[in-house]
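re: ur question from yesterday

yeah so i grabbed the chain u mentioned. its 226 aa long if i counted rite. heres the sequnce exactly as i have it in my notes:
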Amino acid sequence: MAKVAESVKKGQPQLGYGMTETNAFGPANRGADYTSRPTSTGRATPPMKVEIRDENLRALPVGERGEIWFFGPMLIRGYWNKPEATAETIVDGWLRSGDVGRLDDEGFVYVEDRVKDMILRGGENVYCAEVESAIYEHPAVHEAAVFGVPHDRLGEEVAVAIRPNDGVSLTAADLWKFLDGKIANFKVPNHVVIMNEELPRNAAGKFLKRELRDLVAGGKLATVSR
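ran it thru and got these structure tokens back, copy pasting raw so excuse formatting
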């Protein structure tokens, strides 16, 4: 990002974070802040307030991951003729984003995953985006989608579907060896699916993780487990 900012004089990179429910208002990151923190969406602009909360709606301290919540006059009042959805999304004037993130000690917001993509394994939270990021560091990986599959004792276990680069061989054992020490052991996928075709996506280009989950849980995809 520093190279982009230096070479493009008439335009500077910036990043904004908003949604329909906030009327597209939200944290913004630009200028020197963006150059020094390119993975942050920036700080909230007053009068917006941001909190990171746990599953019990308690505000979390700096650096801890949780769901991002917004507060301010820019929020919608509710969804048209959908009182249940409104009650679930807006609580005491605060709006839950559905995104997982954290705040640093200067108030910069970092968006790291979607709540619905979080895997709860034996009481431990596993963020799919974090695991996918580690897997994509492997030079043989072309596509990777991490998702949870049901487990009787743990609730869920971590699984991944991978499409290797064309002409490259990749095994589950290769992946496990590569991830050893890169991420915590409980985050390493216990179930690995190697696919030779493109992973299923929706019209927006997002992986169909629910479909992959159902196929693995139903034994309809060849899976290597440890």
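noticed a couple things. The first strand starts at residue 14 and ends at 16. also The CA atoms of residues 64 and 102 lie 6 Å apart.
anyway ttyl
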